[in-house]
Every structure is written in structure tokens, then in C-alpha cells.
């Protein structure tokens, strides 16, 4: 929602808009999101990525750990994990 659209909202409505934090994952060139409700602290992790190394066929959690660190720092509560399409 742009600034012009926000100016038309009544006082108090702006703080109830969902907060969206994006995390770019360089290897897959994908974006992961934490979408949260500022009123309740509930949040959704959208399209979290596991780190996969083809050469060793191993998985890592560096990308997911960044999402969880943000959740902890912002004092959010994960309620949903949404995967809109497959990521490794």
C-alpha cells in the first residue's frame, strides 16, 4: 500500500496493517517473507528455504535461521508456515 493510500486511512488503522519483512536468498534468487500482525504478534513464514549443497548433497538452515532470528528479535509468534511452491 502506497503513501497516498495510507493517508486515506483513519487514525489507528495504519498500525493494524500487516508488517512484511522480506529476506532475499542469493543462491536460489528467491524471496522469503515474515508477515506479521502488529496487534497480536502472530506471523506467517512464507516460502522458507533450506540451504542445499549439490556437491555434498547436504542441507543447511542458514536461511531459515535468519527468519527465526528476526521472529525472535521482533517478539513474534509463528502461527503459519506457508510454502507457495517448492523450494529445496
What does this structure look like?
- By secondary structure, the protein is an alpha+beta fold.
- It has one domain (about 15-80).
- Helices cover about 20% and strands about 35% of the residues.
- It has 2 helices and 6 strands.
- It has helices spanning about 5, 60-75, and strands spanning about 20-25, 30-35, 40-45, 50-55, 60, 75-80.
- The chain has a 4-stranded mixed beta sheet, covered by helices on one side. Strands 4-5 form a two-stranded antiparallel ribbon.
- Strand 4 (about 50-55) and strand 5 (about 60) form a beta hairpin.
- The longest helix has 12 residues, at about 60-75.
- The chain is elongated and about 55 Å long.
- It starts with a helix and ends in a 6-residue tail after the last strand.
- The mean pLDDT is about 85.
Amino acid at each position: 500500500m502506497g503513501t497516498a493510500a495510507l493517508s486515506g486511512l483513519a487514525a489507528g488503522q495504519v498500525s493494524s496493517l500487516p508488517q512484511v519483512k522480506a529476506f532475499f536468498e542469493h543462491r536460489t534468487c528467491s524471496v522469503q517473507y515474515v508477515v506479521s500482525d502488529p496487534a497480536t504478534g502472530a506471523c506467517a513464514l512464507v516460502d522458507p528455504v533450506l540451504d542445499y549443497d549439490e556437491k555434498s548433497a547436504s542441507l543447511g538452515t542458514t536461511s531459515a535461521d535468519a527468519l527465526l532470528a528476526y521472529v525472535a528479535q521482533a517478539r513474534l509468534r509463528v502461527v503459519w508456515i506457508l510454502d507457495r511452491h517448492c523450494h529445496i
